[in-house]
Write a structure and sequence with these properties.
The protein is 57% helix and 21% strand. By secondary structure, the chain is of the alpha+beta class. Strands 2-1-5-4-3 form a five-stranded antiparallel β-sheet. Strand 4 and strand 5 form a beta hairpin. The termini are far apart. The relative contact order is 0.08.
Length: 202
């Protein structure tokens, strides 16, 4: 509709110029002066039309920027909500990237490993597992890569040992899952501290 309106306005202005030209011809104004005036009028008219189009383009860009900011704000709010849900979980939840570096650590994980989420982020998960458990974890990840693992998760019920930042080892029940989003693969490890259970059993 805006383009049609501009075309109508342009046609109306052009008609006015034609009428003006006819009036000048009747008044016997020299052709050179007539053409100079007409060219000036056309240039002025085109300038007005281009200015309007630029304003409309700027409005479209401003709306696109506003929409993008709203989407980004919505994504940040969802991420915060997701983090709050994970922080409320009783089990330790750790997310690692393909290089086994920690990208997320919930509150329960920070508690049992005696390290803050900010300090743990970017560290290798190897620091928080015993050598045997680290080997088991890598075997499971390799199974994902080689498509030998068809289930959505892997459960290690016994024999998995974790290591706190202080160096103390403790038994855990571990569940490993894989997710690929936008071509980026990550792994989520859910750990349950079995220290109290083992103490009660013994």
């Amino acid at each position: 509709p805006e383009l049609l309106q501009l075309n109508d306005e342009f046609s109306a202005k052009a008609d006015d110029l034609v009428k003006l030209y006819d009036a000048w011809a009747s008044a016997k104004i020299s052709r050179m002066v007539q053409w100079q005036i007409l060219i000036g009028c056309f240039i002025g008219l085109l300038g007005v039309l281009l200015t309007r189009q630029l304003r409309q383009a700027n409005k479209a860009v401003e709306q696109e920027i506003l929409d993008r900011k709203q989407i980004e704000q919505s994504l940040r709010e969802r991420e915060q909500q997701h983090a709050q849900i994970l922080d409320s979980a009783m089990d330790a939840i750790i997310t690692i990237d393909q290089e086994r570096h920690i990208t997320f650590l919930n509150r329960a994980a920070a508690t049992i490993f005696h390290i803050s989420a900010a300090e743990a982020k970017g560290l290798s998960l190897q620091r928080f597992l015993t050598p045997r458990s680290w080997q088991i974890l890598n075997q499971h990840i390799q199974a994902y890569h080689s498509c030998l693992q068809t289930e959505g998760y892997i459960w290690e019920q016994e024999g998995f040992m974790a290591q706190r930042a202080t160096g103390d080892e403790f038994p855990v029940e571990a569940t490993l899952s894989q997710a690929t989003i936008s071509g980026q693969t990550s792994y989520t490890l859910v750990l349950r501290d079995l220290t109290v259970r083992h103490r009660m059993e013994s």
